[in-house]
Specification:
The protein is of the alpha+beta class and 405 residues long. Helix content is 33%, strand content 23%. α7 packs antiparallel against α8. The structure holds glyoxylic acid and manganese (II) ion (2 copies). The site of one manganese (II) ion has 5 residues, from loops.
């Protein structure tokens, strides 16, 4: 194997991250949504890098890019090109770029067949779906996803057709049984633990389970000046109590987090009592039973709040994914690869969702984390240093050298 030049790998990674960064639907902030023109441009740039590294490139029915080298049972390496709204530059692209630079290191002839995958729907920023592209690759895509609408009323199915794809081809995106030996993903940590441990790399032991749902609260819209306080059925004031209940539940359980990220109050005028509110809850935990019990606890509490305030409340669940345990053998091989570079592999669970969750339904899956500054992510301030990225890609190269299909 050629000597691994960590500085050069880090510099290449940084250049590639910077090339993808401006591909956004808005100047000045990063928004790269699934099946958008920006997704197309990012995929085209990435496909060219894959070809330059010696890979055969194809694209499946959901726009997932597949850069292939070698024949037979293979190692899959991947991450995503879509972003959250007002994103940082590293969440997703780094894992794709790492796979490409690792293949390039082996001059397009790695010791094991490899597919590098660039997924498009990891964040769930456009449709109320998430991980749908990796679900298709893993053979567990859910047909109902095609009917989901984005904020502009465009359905997932129509967006796919506009992207030049045929939904009938989705089953062909799945790997055949036995074809995939393992999936490995490199990703920024998105939290502060590696920085606190003063180490650049971590190994993910498992990925939290998630529930996401909409809460719809209905009261009565009315005149802000004439309806006395005790006669109001204010859907927003009731929602506010429910939001705080979600926060209390998240705080009450070790390792659980609960977030309300969207609140939409209607009709949305300063002089009208809100008659209808929709808000989302995202609740995560490593233990599935505890997560489900917490969802039920929230819904009971929300019903109590609604009853006391003469409101109606309903729940629409749109995302439910179980906690994933990363493969123990792959974790050990990653730890050995990190050890080869003289680093200590810090083991930690992931509170963020990842395509690895779906890929674990197909084959053994594992993830390596890269330290990011101040633990900041889903924020334009997100940053991983070129040295840390280079070290991570070097560890991925060592991993490939140790991996047996
Ligand atoms: C994806 O980044 C998620 O965990 O929400
Ligand atoms: Mn991500
Ligand atoms: Mn993310």
């Amino acid at each position: 194997m050629a000597a691994i030049d960590i500085k050069a790998l880090g510099a290449r990674a940084e250049t590639m991250i910077s090339a993808l960064a401006p591909i956004s639907s808005e100047p000045g902030r990063l928004i790269r949504l699934f099946l958008s023109p920006e997704h197309r441009r990012a995929a085209d740039m990435t496909a060219q890098w894959m070809r330059d590294a010696g890979m055969q490139v194809s694209e499946d029915a959901l726009g997932t890019l597949r850069g292939r080298v070698g024949e037979g049972r293979r190692l899959l390496i991947g991450s995503h090109l879509d972003s959250v709204i007002d994103a940082g530059n590293y969440d997703g692209p780094l894992g794709v770029i790492a796979g490409i630079l690792a293949v390039e290191h082996f001059k397009g002839r790695p010791p094991v067949p490899i597919d590098v995958l660039a997924f498009g729907d990891e964040e769930g920023s456009r449709f109320p779906s998430t991980l749908s592209t990796s679900a298709a690759v893993a053979g567990v895509f859910e047909e109902e996803t095609l009917g989901l609408s984005d904020r502009n009323g465009v359905t997932y199915g129509d967006a796919l057709r506009k992207y030049g794809k045929n939904p009938a081809d989705i089953p062909k995106a799945a790997y055949r049984r036995g074809e995939a030996a393992a999936y490995v993903e490199l990703h920024i940590e998105q939290g502060p633990r590696l920085e606190a441990a003063n180490e650049p790399l971590g190994i993910v032991t498992g990925i939290v389970g998630q529930s996401r749902w909409r809460v719809i609260v209905t009261g009565m819209a009315g005149h802000a000046g004439t309806v006395p306080m005790d006669l109001r059925r204010d859907a927003l004031a009731g929602s506010a109590e429910m939001v705080l209940a979600a926060e209390r539940i998240g705080r009450a359980h070790e390792g659980m987090v609960a977030t309300v990220g969207i609140v939409d109050a209607r009709p949305g005028a300063g002089n009208i009592i809100p008659g209808r509110v929709m808000f989302t809850v995202d609740l995560r935990c490593m233990d599935d039973a505890t997560r489900k019990a917490a969802v039920a606890e929230f819904e009971d509490k929300a019903r109590d709040i609604a009853k006391a305030r003469k409101l109606e409340v309903t729940f629409e669940h749109f995302h439910d994914v179980s906690a994933t345990v990363c493969d123990a053998g792959l974790q050990d091989t990653l730890a050995a690869a990190i050890g080869d570079l003289g680093h200590r592999a810090i083991r930690m669970p992931s509170g963020a969702g990842h395509d690895g969750q779906m890929m674990a339904k197909l084959c053994p899956a594992a993830m390596m984390f890269v330290r990011c500054r101040d633990g900041i992510s889903h924020n334009p301030a997100e940053y991983a240093s070129p040295d840390d990225m280079g070290t991570a890609i070097a560890a991925l190269i060592r991993f490939i050298g140790r991996f047996r299909t």
